[in-house]
Design goal:
Shape of chain A: elongated
Mean pLDDT of chain A: 89
Oligomer: heterodimer
Mean pLDDT of chain B: 86
Largest interface: A-B, 36 and 36 residues
Strand content of chain B: over 45%
Shape of chain B: globular
Helix content of chain A: 25-40%
Number of strands of chain A: 11
Low-confidence stretches of chain A: 14-20
Largest sheet of chain A: 9 strands, mixed
Distance between the termini of chain B: 32 Å
Largest sheet of chain B: 16 strands, antiparallel, barrel
Structural class of chain A: alpha/beta
Radius of gyration of chain A: 23 Å
Radius of gyration of chain B: 22 Å
Organism (chain A): Candidatus Syntrophosphaera thermopropionivorans
Structural class of chain B: mainly beta
Number of helices of chain A: 10
Distance between the termini of chain A: 65 Å
Protein name (chain A): PstS family phosphate ABC transporter substrate-binding protein
Low-confidence stretches of chain B: none
Strand order of the largest sheet of chain B: 1-2-3-4-5-6-7-8-9-10-11-12-13-14-15-16
Strand content of chain A: 15-25%
């Protein structure tokens, strides 16, 4: 009788544990990908109450290092992994597999009254390093240029720094702002200003410039013709399975891509 | 004069770092308790030979990032030492610049200055065991040296490579201490990661003392010798288990073709590790090591050493990348020498010993945007 009672207690305990057990998915990495991950995780967990997704930022490098250390399920990254990182991962028995989840384009914006419409990468670089100080040097109005940039920890700055600055240092006179909205609002209020922000954040309060003869738009970012764009990734150790696979599939689905767009990014298709 | 040199160095360093975009400040301290038990050389009775606390390493480093393509690293090592009346020593460990755009090959970096020696496992030894990498432990090569290297990674994580030229005498020697060595050392290193969990690699280092085998009167140059160092490295990881094997051969050749001073020394090192974090929730590693160091062809230093180490690593206070800020390590090592040879008249009377090491490491780093 005593043994039967013990067996019953054991079965009940195990059943309780099994019923209460939630699949846990851990993500870390890029602050650019973070809002997409958070918004999609909320929607996904609403539909899958048995899955718990925890997300933290830190930057792409931090997320990738955590994946290499086998401490997260998903690394959020706004850039492809470097050869060095892949090599280190493989040596540790980690097989990083990338999943593209969204596109990010950066628009260079000016005040709507500015007559300049086209610009080249080298001209943007000269403005941001302080070589070009007045719009008249580019055939525009006689107006000092007010340079607006993002704080260096942002993913948007990371892309701008890589694709435009190419190793050059942003002039110390540039105003550093903390968000895409802060940049667009400041540029909208300052006639001589130039700034940059995610394509999804550009409104009719500012004017997006044609860069290297291509206007930033959802279409030109998706077809790869617009130069200031990039893919955003989630990396897993080996091909995603179980709850991780379901979550990534949700982000790539039409429902997930709608959330991507709502967050100011560009859907994959 | 010393003060002037230090002030100049500090000035150069500050000027350099202020010109940079970012500056990473880092430090790492190794507090160690060493207890050595072994045979007393006089009568071979067993006794505690050493029992002391020390700061074995006190790295302090600055890593300025001047641009996306130019970065620097400056590291000094502060440590407990009897060589100085103050009980502490200071060594320059690294002082180099990395240029990633000098040669238009993706992921290739040109490194100039006092830097890592790309030989075997010495340049990325993680100190999961308290002991050094085999090449460092048995003084086969130095862990850093003055020179120029070209080091990089193959696309898609296929591995890494390095070729370089160094003084060959290590970071503790320069100028007058370079032992008449006008010949630099040449190093080549290759590692391949064909699939996840498997890494194979090898290194070669050619070094010599003096350039010419013959003196001007056509007699043999007694100071000439050439070293050929070869290293084979392999690592297999499956889940929480890793097995690392390293084999090193050191061949020393003198000017006389049939010199009895020529010798070859060999080292085999096997390191198994089991990571228990996924199993028990704590970042705990069980780690072992077997070394066989055979230098018996050297008439002036004949010994055959077998060393077995068992260790435990507990890592805690992890940062957001899951790298620990603190690490507690226990290592027990038993060293045994070939009985006949260690007692022979030509040997250096090496005796068996056991060592217990307890170590608390802590590290910090922070990046400042300038």
């Amino acid at each position: 009788m005593k043994n039967k009672l013990l067996l019953l207690v054991a079965i009940l305990t195990l059943t309780t544990i099994t019923v209460n057990a939630k699949s846990k998915v851990t993500c870390a990495g890029s602050t650019t990908v973070l809002p997409i991950a958070q918004a999609t995780a909320e929607a996904f967990m609403d539909a899958h109450p048995d899955i718990n997704i925890s997300i933290r930022g830190g930057g792409s490098g931090v997320g990738i290092a955590a994946l290499i250390n086998n401490s997260v399920d998903i690394a959020l990254s706004s850039r492809p992994m470097k050869s060095k990182e892949i090599s280190q991962a493989k040596a540790k028995g980690i097989n990083p597999v990338p999943y593209a989840i969204a596109l990010d384009g950066i628009a260079v914006i000016v005040h709507p009254s500015n007559t300049i419409s086209n610009i080249t990468i080298s001209q943007i670089r000269d403005i941001y390093t302080g070589k070009i100080k007045n719009w008249k040097e580019l055939g525009g109005p006689n107006l000092p240029i007010v340079v607006i940039s993002r704080d260096v920890s942002s993913g948007t700055f990371e892309v701008f720094n890589e694709k435009v600055m190419a190793g050059a240092k942003v002039s110390s006179s540039a105003q550093l702002l903390a968000s895409n909205n802060a940049v667009t609002n400041t540029v909208a209020d300052t006639p001589g200003a130039i700034g940059y922000a995610g394509v999804g954040f550009v409104s009719n309060k500012v004017k997006a410039l044609v860069v290297e003869k291509v206007l930033p738009s959802e279409k030109t970012v998706q077809d790869g013709t617009y130069i200031l764009s990039r893919k955003l990734y989630m990396y897993t150790n080996g091909k995603a399975t179980g709850a991780v696979s379901s979550y990534i599939a949700f982000i790539q689905s039409p429902q997930g891509q709608k959330i991507v767009k709502e967050q100011g990014f560009i859907p994959l298709q | 004069m010393k003060k002037l040199i230090w002030l100049t160095l500090l000035g150069l360093l500050l000027t350099g770092t202020l010109c940079s975009q970012e500056l990473k400040i880092s430090g790492e301290m190794w507090n160690r308790w060493t207890i050595v038990n072994g045979k007393v050389p006089a009568d071979s009775s067993n006794a505690i030979l050493k029992n002391y606390f020390s700061l074995e390493r006190g790295y302090f480093g600055l890593e300025p990032k001047f641009s996306e393509t130019v970065k620097g690293r400056f590291t000094v090592d502060i440590f407990s030492s009897d060589d100085n009346k103050n009980g502490a020593g200071l060594k320059l460990k690294y002082a180099y610049l990395d240029f990633s755009n000098l040669i238009p090959i993706p992921d290739l970096t040109t490194t100039v200055g006092l830097q890592k020696v790309y030989f075997g496992s010495i340049y990325d030894w993680t100190y999961d065991l308290i002991g050094k990498a085999p090449a460092d432990e048995y003084s086969i090569t130095n862990s850093s040296d003055y020179g120029i290297t070209f080091n990089g990674y193959f696309p898609e994580g296929w591995g890494e490579y390095a070729v370089g030229i160094y003084n060959g005498e290590g970071y503790k020697n320069y100028g007058a201490n370079l032992k008449d060595n006008i010949e630099p050392a040449f190093v080549g290193n290759l590692r391949i990661t064909p699939v996840s969990g498997i890494m194979v690699g090898g290194s070669i280092m050619i070094n010599s003392n003096e350039r010419k085998k013959l003196l001007t009167d056509n007699t043999i140059n007694p100071k000439f010798n050439q070293q050929l160092l070869l290293d084979g490295l392999g690592s297999i990881t499956y889940g929480p288990i890793n097995l690392c094997l390293e084999y090193i051969s050191k061949k020393v050749m003198h000017a006389d073709e049939f010199s009895n001073k020529d010798y070859t020394a060999n080292c085999l090192s096997v390191i198994p590790t089991i990571k228990l974090q996924k199993l028990i929730g704590y970042d705990l590693d069980l780690i072992g090591r077997y070394d066989r160091w055979d230098e018996t062809d050297n008439p002036s230093n004949q010994n055959l050493l077998n060393a077995i180490t068992a260790g435990l690593n507990y890592k805690f206070m992890h940062n957001e990348s899951a790298n620990p800020a603190m690490q507690f390590q226990i290592n027990y090592t038993y060293k045994s020498y070939d009985e006949e040879e260690s007692s022979a008249s030509y040997a250096n009377k090496l005796k068996d010993s056991s060592t217990l090491l307890l170590q608390l490491k802590w590290r910090f780093n922070n990046t400042i945007t300038l």
